[in-house]
User: Fold these one by one.
Assistant:
Number 1:
Amino acid sequence: MSLLKQWKKAFVELLKSPIITVENGLILKIEYRNEYGELHRIPGIGPAFIEYYENGNVSYEEYYVNDERHRLKGPACISYHENGEIRCEGYWVKDERHRLDGPADIWYYENGNISCESYWVNDERHRLDGPAIISYHENGNMRYEEYWVDNKKHRLEGPAYIEYYENGNVYCEEYCVNGKRHRLEGPAFIRYYENGNIRYEEYWVDNKKHRLDSPAIIRYYENGNIHYEQYWVNDERHKLDSPANIFGIMKMVTYVMKHIGLTVRDID
């Protein structure tokens, strides 16, 4: 398209009258539509949809081309807190979440700090050089991070999901490969007490609770002592030479002793 034709098209767009919705003397929203009734406006001119708070501040802006969210230079969706600060920015191309040079979704706290970032390519969560989702506590410390490749939770060199306490200590870790809980050398899911001690660990292979010759689930007291153990093979409780659920047996023995009036001292 020649430069003259582009200029004429933009000029025609400028002349189009928007659809304005007013209630009780206040503008609620403004829409730009084409001859087919689709939300449409040249992105370089401005958003095709604008919504307002009662105080007159903009609540939401969306850029549409022929009823598809679309903008090449900047976010296609922008929402605002009532105080005017940006709440969320979403990058869309041809109605798909998409951005190559940064996160496609960015959420902000009201104080302006980033709340969450997520990376999308062609409407799929995807990032090769770091976590595809990063969430933050309001104080700026990381809340959790997730690694995604081709819309599947995936990471080979470490946990694909890491969540943190507000003080920065790790809360839990999850190992995933191609969207499945999976780890051959060590537990695939680990949760920690706030002091850093392990609270429980679970062994998974190919999205199944699985471990040979040792418990697949181990839970600990905060002092590090074992609380109970469970044995699993191929996602089924399993132990040939002793109970599969040590904690369950202990509870049953304790119940029977209490019922007949025995204590540990009586046994000794």
Number 2:
Amino acid sequence: MAPFAYFGIESSGLNLVVDLLILFVVVLYLSLIYWTYADARRRILDPMLVGCATAASLFPFVGTIVYIILRPPEYLEDVRERELEMQAAEARLHEFDNALCPHCDYRIERDFVRCPSCLRKLKDRCVSCSRPLDQAWTICPYCEADVPGISSSRTRRKRPPAPVETELTEIDIEGETGETVAPVAAPERAASPRGGGRSRRPRATS
């Protein structure tokens, strides 16, 4: 049986090349369909739109190009991660601006001096600038005034002076008899006179 001739040319080598080229185009076409489906699932939340994108990719190469132009710019995971970060940031800002009263759990702000619900005192005012002070502050961060009753109790402690070395050195010598020698005083250095330690000779009298 004679081989099928492409373009009217009967050649086994040409037929092999054409078959491989057709196989490559078919594999590429199926791969683009699968890639469009997988990418649409990661970018589109609505399953109906995912099906439409996959159906559009059935048109050879043109549907995939149209999908690439019209697809959403972000993945769904990136959108969820950004929303979680925004929610966490808003929660931190809300916690920083608003708090609860430790006595009645009423919502208060950070600069409240008294609770508007239970009327209990929450913070003290600075004696210099009258701004509310935190209980952990030792000085006012606005005017650098000392907080009365706190700054005195949290003063820095000075380090104790270093111990002075004694002149006596105790030497314990344990011999065969186990006797110990009494403390021996360290020898004092004699003060050398002026003139480099030389003694002056008496002048001879004539």
Number 3:
Amino acid sequence: MLNFKETTVPEGLDEHYEASSDGTSFTLKVEGLPEAPEDKTEEVATLTLKLSEETDKVNDFRSNNIKLKAQIEKDSTSDSKIESLIQDALQPFRDKNTQLETTNATLSRNLEEVVLSDKIKSLAVEAGVYDSALSDVVVRAKQSFSVKDGKVVPVDANARDTEGNLFTTESWLKNLTETAQHLFKPSQGSSAFRSKDVRTTQKQSSVSRISAGLKKK
């Protein structure tokens, strides 16, 4: 969660701020931004800067609205006129707040995209996926995984792999070596994801050959 401290809370936005223990400052709560992977620091910083800029614009609107409201209360004599002027003055602020929430949601989605892509690509490279096929693997992974609290988790929390274990990115990629072998380099197979299966196959083949020879005798 990203925090931005203020000494006052914009009118109508109390639910978006959290007061400090001594009540002298308030923190803007921006939910849903997971921590970025270490090698994505620059991209996360850019996203955070954009969010900070939007917050500064909201603060400017807040200051202008406070001044306008004070002027209206001083010069106006009609309660209905005052209410109308106040609502008109606050509308740009409400619109800006909606825009900030939309921007926050967009930044969250972008960051989740970075976390998921980085995780899957890292495993795919280790498994021997062609560089040109990494994007394809990421697209496939998005159908089965999402990001929650900064971690890549299965879309279906109760999903199990073919061995009955909880579904993970590793077990998903291992299954991919069997269903989409064209994505992997022939000379490397899929590293640790397939080496065990290969050894087992070779062992079984040897036993089969010996058994076949004994039967001939």
Number 4:
Amino acid sequence: MAGNIIEVKNLVKTYPGDVKAVRGINFNVKEGEFFGFLGPNGAGKTTTINMLVNLVKKTSGTVKIDGLEISDNPDEIYKKVGFAMQEVGLDEVATAREMMQLHGRLYHMPKAEIDAQIAKLLKLVELEKVADKFTSTYSGGMRRRFDLALSLIHKPKVLFLDEPTQGLDPHARQLIWGHLRELNKQGMTIFLTTHFMDEAEELCDRIEIMDKGVIVTEGSPAELMKKHNAKNMEEVFLKTTGSTIGEEEVNANAPDPFSRARSGGRR
């Protein structure tokens, strides 16, 4: 049986003003697992995933990836994880190949290894024909697929995905699904957050649902539907998360627009 590649114990994130975004959660992800991490807006999902990849500092608790505590081994953690974020930010005056070469060099990869990985990944995401075109000319689906390839350039052991198919048409969405299935089949651990319940049901081996900073249920899609007497994962989600649109809170950590205006827009 595969061991745990992610281990989270008593993870807490509290922002200034005693805003508790994550309230002492515990979970594990097995190596090679396709893991879904779901929840409504404001549940703490994105804060959690940002802590797991060391983009946000945790308040307390432990997080281990491949046996290493993230706070003690940040450089090693960056080598072990890939992260395709919710918002795709690409250099629009560079080609896909140029960006992949740059990212490979940032990870201190040998040139021959970079070139081999670029060829492999461009084939995987079906962008070989446009690899030398500016990314500004890419469609939304092409940009998502390229962002996926870019997150894999350094051969990470764990791939974190935050809403990878948001805004895509059904054809582009199916393409992304196919690429993710192939990566998982090859042994990669995938950690997925999504608001598409059919996506989670279709792709994930196991799912945890978070609401108001805590884990409210977990299991395989079949186990969750049986446990909550639901026809599909959307029903599971609605039954286990008590939030409504009217209860959604503002982002307490958003920058003060007046202070930005006074500073002339400078950050």
